[in-house]
Design goal:
By secondary structure, the chain is mainly α. It has helices at 5-8, 24-33, 41-48, 52-64, 84-90, and strands at residues 68-72, 78-82. Helix 2 (24-33) crosses helix 3 and helix 3 packs across helix 4 (52-64). The termini are far apart.
């Protein structure tokens, strides 16, 4: 279920480093994807005024975190959209768990 525009306005006020709140780039991408549609990195770059490569890299990391879903068309073009987990977390409906520090 996609977020409404009014719910998306609340994204900037949610907290949690696990969803990239510390990164303005990731926050801008999350807001661009909050309408529930899928966009190419070039389209995300247009919506966010970020570089296309930055958008592609951030989305790839969020795919790994299972917050963003990637779809590939017949031409090999990648499209990204928030998963249900990403939409729920973006709406602030799930609690952020603290990250455990790893051994070095």
């Amino acid at each position: 279920m996609p977020l409404s525009r009014s719910e998306a306005q609340n994204l900037a006020t949610t907290s949690g480093k696990g969803f990239g709140r510390a990164s303005p780039d990731r926050n801008a991408i999350i807001m661009a994807l909050a309408d529930g549609d899928y966009y190419s990195p070039a389209e995300i770059a247009q919506k966010t005024n970020l570089e296309e490569k930055v958008c592609a890299t951030r989305c790839t990391v969020m795919v790994r975190d299972k917050l963003v879903d990637r779809r590939v068309d017949d031409n090999g073009m990648h499209y990204y959209g928030l998963t249900d987990k990403g939409l729920t977390r973006a709406a602030g409906k799930t609690e952020e768990k603290p990250r455990k520090k790893g051994k070095k």
